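In the laboratory, one determines a bound structure by crystallizing the protein with its ligand and collecting diffraction data. In a computational setting the workflow is compressed into a single prediction: the sequence and the ligand go in, and a structural description comes out. We illustrate the idea with magnesium ion.
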Amino acid sequence: MITIKSQREIELMKEAGRIVAHTLKILEEAIRPGISTYDLDKIAEQAIREQGAVPSFKGYRGFPGTICASVNNVVIHGIPDKKTILKNGDIISIDIGACYKGYHGDSARTFPVGEVSETRKRLLKVTKEALFAGLAFAKPANRLSDISHAIEKYVLENGYSVVKEFTGHGIGQKLHEDPPIPNFGNPGFGPLLKAGMTLAIEPMVNAGASETVVLDDDWTTVTRDGSDSAHFEHTIVITDTGYNILTKEGE
Ligand code: MG
Ligand code: MG
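The predicted complex, in C-alpha coordinate form:
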Protein backbone atom coordinates (compact mmCIF):
# COMPACT_ATOMS: atom_id res chain seq x y z
CA MET A 1 0.00 0.00 0.00
CA ILE A 2 1.29 3.43 -0.92
CA THR A 3 0.76 5.90 1.91
CA ILE A 4 -0.13 9.55 1.32
CA LYS A 5 1.60 11.76 3.88
CA SER A 6 -0.04 14.62 5.73
CA GLN A 7 1.50 18.09 5.79
CA ARG A 8 2.80 17.39 9.29
CA GLU A 9 4.47 14.18 8.16
CA ILE A 10 6.01 15.93 5.15
CA GLU A 11 7.47 18.59 7.46
CA LEU A 12 9.12 15.87 9.57
CA MET A 13 10.47 14.17 6.46
CA LYS A 14 11.80 17.50 5.27
CA GLU A 15 13.76 17.82 8.50
CA ALA A 16 15.05 14.23 8.16
CA GLY A 17 16.04 15.08 4.60
CA ARG A 18 17.78 18.28 5.62
CA ILE A 19 19.81 16.33 8.17
CA VAL A 20 20.82 13.81 5.50
CA ALA A 21 21.81 16.58 3.08
CA HIS A 22 23.86 18.38 5.71
CA THR A 23 25.62 15.14 6.64
CA LEU A 24 26.50 14.50 2.98
CA LYS A 25 27.99 18.00 2.83
CA ILE A 26 30.13 17.31 5.89
CA LEU A 27 31.30 14.06 4.27
CA GLU A 28 32.09 15.83 1.00
CA GLU A 29 34.51 18.03 2.91
CA ALA A 30 36.04 15.02 4.68
CA ILE A 31 36.55 12.88 1.58
CA ARG A 32 40.21 12.86 0.56
CA PRO A 33 42.94 10.38 -0.34
CA GLY A 34 44.07 8.53 2.81
CA ILE A 35 40.81 8.54 4.78
CA SER A 36 39.13 5.20 5.48
CA THR A 37 35.45 4.47 4.90
CA TYR A 38 35.32 3.58 8.62
CA ASP A 39 36.35 7.14 9.50
CA LEU A 40 33.73 8.55 7.14
CA ASP A 41 31.14 6.36 8.83
CA LYS A 42 32.04 7.73 12.27
CA ILE A 43 31.85 11.31 10.98
CA ALA A 44 28.39 10.60 9.51
CA GLU A 45 27.04 8.94 12.65
CA GLN A 46 28.20 11.81 14.85
CA ALA A 47 26.73 14.40 12.48
CA ILE A 48 23.34 12.66 12.32
CA ARG A 49 23.12 12.24 16.09
CA GLU A 50 24.23 15.83 16.77
CA GLN A 51 21.32 16.99 14.61
CA GLY A 52 18.85 15.03 16.75
CA ALA A 53 18.29 12.13 14.39
CA VAL A 54 19.20 8.44 14.32
CA PRO A 55 21.04 6.61 11.50
CA SER A 56 18.43 4.68 9.50
CA PHE A 57 20.78 2.02 8.18
CA LYS A 58 22.70 1.04 11.31
CA GLY A 59 21.23 -2.28 12.44
CA TYR A 60 18.79 -2.40 9.50
CA ARG A 61 18.64 -6.12 8.70
CA GLY A 62 21.97 -6.29 10.52
CA PHE A 63 23.84 -3.68 8.45
CA PRO A 64 26.74 -2.52 10.64
CA GLY A 65 27.27 1.03 9.31
CA THR A 66 25.63 4.44 9.32
CA ILE A 67 26.58 4.87 5.65
CA CYS A 68 26.95 2.56 2.72
CA ALA A 69 30.39 3.36 1.32
CA SER A 70 30.84 1.88 -2.13
CA VAL A 71 34.15 2.48 -3.92
CA ASN A 72 34.71 2.21 -7.73
CA ASN A 73 33.25 -1.12 -8.89
CA VAL A 74 31.12 -1.47 -5.73
CA VAL A 75 27.57 -0.57 -6.73
CA ILE A 76 25.85 -0.29 -3.34
CA HIS A 77 25.91 -1.57 0.25
CA GLY A 78 29.68 -1.29 0.77
CA ILE A 79 30.39 -1.84 4.47
CA PRO A 80 32.53 0.88 6.11
CA ASP A 81 35.91 -0.62 6.92
CA LYS A 82 39.24 0.55 8.40
CA LYS A 83 41.04 -1.30 5.59
CA THR A 84 39.22 0.52 2.80
CA ILE A 85 41.40 3.62 2.39
CA LEU A 86 40.46 6.09 -0.33
CA LYS A 87 43.06 6.76 -3.03
CA ASN A 88 43.49 9.66 -5.39
CA GLY A 89 41.34 9.00 -8.49
CA ASP A 90 38.77 6.76 -6.76
CA ILE A 91 35.05 7.39 -6.83
CA ILE A 92 32.97 6.68 -3.73
CA SER A 93 29.19 6.33 -3.55
CA ILE A 94 27.83 7.28 -0.16
CA ASP A 95 24.28 6.37 0.76
CA ILE A 96 22.82 7.78 3.98
CA GLY A 97 19.53 7.50 5.81
CA ALA A 98 18.46 9.44 8.89
CA CYS A 99 15.35 9.02 10.99
CA TYR A 100 13.91 12.14 12.65
CA LYS A 101 10.92 11.81 15.01
CA GLY A 102 9.97 8.56 13.33
CA TYR A 103 10.38 9.62 9.68
CA HIS A 104 13.18 8.74 7.30
CA GLY A 105 15.19 10.62 4.70
CA ASP A 106 17.40 8.73 2.24
CA SER A 107 19.93 10.13 -0.22
CA ALA A 108 23.05 9.02 -2.08
CA ARG A 109 25.79 10.70 -4.08
CA THR A 110 28.95 9.54 -5.78
CA PHE A 111 31.95 11.73 -5.00
CA PRO A 112 35.32 12.01 -6.72
CA VAL A 113 38.39 11.45 -4.51
CA GLY A 114 41.12 13.94 -5.38
CA GLU A 115 41.69 14.17 -9.12
CA VAL A 116 39.62 11.65 -11.06
CA SER A 117 39.74 10.71 -14.74
CA GLU A 118 37.44 12.32 -17.31
CA THR A 119 35.91 8.87 -17.82
CA ARG A 120 34.87 8.67 -14.18
CA LYS A 121 33.74 12.30 -14.08
CA ARG A 122 31.41 11.57 -16.98
CA LEU A 123 29.89 8.55 -15.20
CA LEU A 124 29.11 10.72 -12.16
CA LYS A 125 27.64 13.47 -14.29
CA VAL A 126 25.42 11.15 -16.33
CA THR A 127 24.16 9.30 -13.23
CA LYS A 128 23.17 12.56 -11.54
CA GLU A 129 21.51 13.75 -14.74
CA ALA A 130 19.66 10.42 -14.99
CA LEU A 131 18.14 11.04 -11.56
CA PHE A 132 16.83 14.42 -12.73
CA ALA A 133 15.69 12.98 -16.07
CA GLY A 134 13.48 10.64 -14.01
CA LEU A 135 12.35 13.37 -11.63
CA ALA A 136 11.09 15.41 -14.60
CA PHE A 137 8.24 12.86 -14.76
CA ALA A 138 7.46 13.01 -11.02
CA LYS A 139 4.10 14.75 -11.03
CA PRO A 140 0.44 13.93 -10.47
CA ALA A 141 -1.36 11.99 -13.18
CA ASN A 142 1.87 10.48 -14.50
CA ARG A 143 2.45 6.83 -13.74
CA LEU A 144 5.32 5.51 -11.67
CA SER A 145 7.03 3.74 -14.58
CA ASP A 146 7.25 7.04 -16.47
CA ILE A 147 10.04 7.90 -14.01
CA SER A 148 11.66 4.47 -14.42
CA HIS A 149 11.58 4.68 -18.20
CA ALA A 150 13.06 8.18 -18.34
CA ILE A 151 16.00 7.10 -16.16
CA GLU A 152 16.80 4.03 -18.26
CA LYS A 153 16.43 5.93 -21.53
CA TYR A 154 18.83 8.65 -20.42
CA VAL A 155 21.40 6.13 -19.19
CA LEU A 156 21.28 3.99 -22.34
CA GLU A 157 21.54 7.03 -24.60
CA ASN A 158 24.76 7.87 -22.80
CA GLY A 159 26.25 4.42 -23.30
CA TYR A 160 25.93 3.04 -19.77
CA SER A 161 23.62 0.48 -18.16
CA VAL A 162 21.21 0.57 -15.22
CA VAL A 163 21.27 -1.92 -12.37
CA LYS A 164 18.08 -3.98 -12.36
CA GLU A 165 18.42 -6.08 -9.20
CA PHE A 166 17.87 -3.09 -6.89
CA THR A 167 15.26 -0.34 -7.01
CA GLY A 168 14.12 2.91 -5.49
CA HIS A 169 11.22 2.81 -3.07
CA GLY A 170 8.51 4.59 -1.17
CA ILE A 171 9.69 5.98 2.17
CA GLY A 172 8.22 7.45 5.35
CA GLN A 173 7.80 5.86 8.75
CA LYS A 174 9.62 2.92 7.21
CA LEU A 175 12.86 3.23 5.28
CA HIS A 176 11.48 1.03 2.51
CA GLU A 177 7.78 1.34 1.74
CA ASP A 178 5.69 0.59 -1.31
CA PRO A 179 6.08 1.01 -4.19
CA PRO A 180 9.37 -0.41 -5.48
CA ILE A 181 10.67 1.97 -8.17
CA PRO A 182 12.76 0.22 -10.86
CA ASN A 183 15.24 2.25 -12.90
CA PHE A 184 14.06 0.65 -16.13
CA GLY A 185 10.93 -0.36 -17.99
CA ASN A 186 8.21 0.81 -20.34
CA PRO A 187 6.34 4.03 -19.57
CA GLY A 188 2.67 4.16 -18.62
CA PHE A 189 2.58 1.41 -16.00
CA GLY A 190 2.25 1.21 -12.24
CA PRO A 191 0.32 3.44 -9.86
CA LEU A 192 -0.75 6.96 -10.74
CA LEU A 193 1.37 9.51 -8.90
CA LYS A 194 -0.52 11.55 -6.31
CA ALA A 195 0.33 14.58 -4.19
CA GLY A 196 1.66 13.48 -0.79
CA MET A 197 3.47 10.36 -2.01
CA THR A 198 7.05 10.30 -0.73
CA LEU A 199 9.51 8.42 -2.90
CA ALA A 200 13.23 7.66 -2.95
CA ILE A 201 14.41 7.72 -6.57
CA GLU A 202 17.86 6.22 -6.99
CA PRO A 203 19.51 5.29 -10.28
CA MET A 204 22.48 2.95 -9.95
CA VAL A 205 24.47 3.20 -13.17
CA ASN A 206 27.25 0.92 -14.40
CA ALA A 207 29.91 1.98 -16.87
CA GLY A 208 29.87 -1.56 -18.28
CA ALA A 209 27.21 -4.27 -18.18
CA SER A 210 24.18 -4.14 -15.91
CA GLU A 211 24.71 -7.37 -13.94
CA THR A 212 25.77 -7.31 -10.29
CA VAL A 213 27.06 -9.83 -7.76
CA VAL A 214 26.57 -9.80 -3.97
CA LEU A 215 29.76 -10.80 -2.14
CA ASP A 216 30.05 -13.34 0.68
CA ASP A 217 29.39 -10.70 3.37
CA ASP A 218 25.80 -10.69 1.98
CA TRP A 219 25.92 -6.90 1.52
CA THR A 220 28.68 -5.62 -0.75
CA THR A 221 27.27 -5.50 -4.28
CA VAL A 222 29.76 -5.20 -7.14
CA THR A 223 29.52 -5.05 -10.93
CA ARG A 224 29.93 -8.52 -12.42
CA ASP A 225 32.35 -7.23 -15.05
CA GLY A 226 34.40 -5.11 -12.64
CA SER A 227 33.37 -1.82 -14.27
CA ASP A 228 32.77 1.36 -12.28
CA SER A 229 29.37 2.19 -10.84
CA ALA A 230 27.70 5.36 -9.56
CA HIS A 231 24.59 6.09 -7.49
CA PHE A 232 22.54 9.25 -6.97
CA GLU A 233 19.40 9.34 -4.83
CA HIS A 234 16.95 11.89 -3.50
CA THR A 235 13.86 11.54 -1.34
CA ILE A 236 11.05 13.59 -2.87
CA VAL A 237 7.41 14.42 -2.21
CA ILE A 238 4.92 14.63 -5.04
CA THR A 239 3.17 18.03 -4.96
CA ASP A 240 0.08 19.34 -6.76
CA THR A 241 2.23 20.46 -9.68
CA GLY A 242 5.38 18.32 -9.60
CA TYR A 243 7.77 17.39 -6.81
CA ASN A 244 9.92 18.83 -4.06
CA ILE A 245 13.27 17.38 -3.05
CA LEU A 246 13.24 16.65 0.70
CA THR A 247 16.92 15.64 0.98
CA LYS A 248 18.33 19.11 0.56
CA GLU A 249 19.37 22.03 2.72
CA GLY A 250 17.38 25.28 2.64
CA GLU A 251 14.30 25.94 0.56
MG1 MG B 1 19.75 5.34 -0.02
MG1 MG C 1 17.02 4.28 -0.94
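The mean pLDDT is 98. Keep in mind that any predicted model is a hypothesis to be tested, not a measurement.
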